[in-house]
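Late entry, evening session. Most of the bench is empty. Finally got around to the prediction I had been postponing all week. Sequence below, unchanged from the version circulated by S.P.
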Amino acid sequence: MEEKVSKRLMTRALSLVVVLFFGLSLWTPSVLAGDKTEANQLVEKAKMTFENFVKDKNMRVMVDLLKDAKGVFIAPQVLRGAFVVGASGGSGVFIARDKDNRWSGPAFYTLGSVSVGFQVGGDASEVILVAMTERGVKAFHSTNFKLGADAGVAVGPAGAGIAAQTANLSADIVSFSRAKGLYIGLSLDGAVVAARDDLNRAFYGKKTKPPDILGKSGFSNPKASGLLQEVARAAKK
């Protein structure tokens, strides 16, 4: 009798394990598939945003800075809009030069900030941050950091006739932004940048952190080749 009860309990326990196993196996891939699609699309959009900035004659300063840049963050869409208290945010990718001076990455992040003031409506901006110092790159190795505090940030100048040296090169990071194709000089001082662990994992197929993606070999994805090539090409101009 006791043996039958024991077998029944064992059967139920095994059934529960099987249900949990298949339940998780059905849930996890679907979540990862969604993250993978989002990551792939973000990389492609970042590539298009970068290409648009390079073609923009008012962004000649940004292109000039790329020659000495140590890293580049690209956010295809940063949303801003509120009434009295405003909030902005968007996701982007960061790539950096490795020890062999080749561009590596990307690592995925979200960019967000909160401002107080009278403002109505909203807009969407494209943002590129050019990291000019090792401190600027190291900031992106963190899980999260604040622009202006953990890394100095300056708004980059725009205009076809402006030389690169007019930018505040003493800053760790120089920012450039456009809305509807026009330069807007968006101030990002105080904005918080946080790693998107979900997208990093989905894009590379394993749990990882920005320092591993940006500083170690073995982290690559063919989906990023187009973006890396575009940045490398522009940095040689």
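Two things to note before I forget:
Residues 89 and 112 are 4 Å apart (CA to CA).
The radius of gyration is 22 Å.
Will write this up properly tomorrow.
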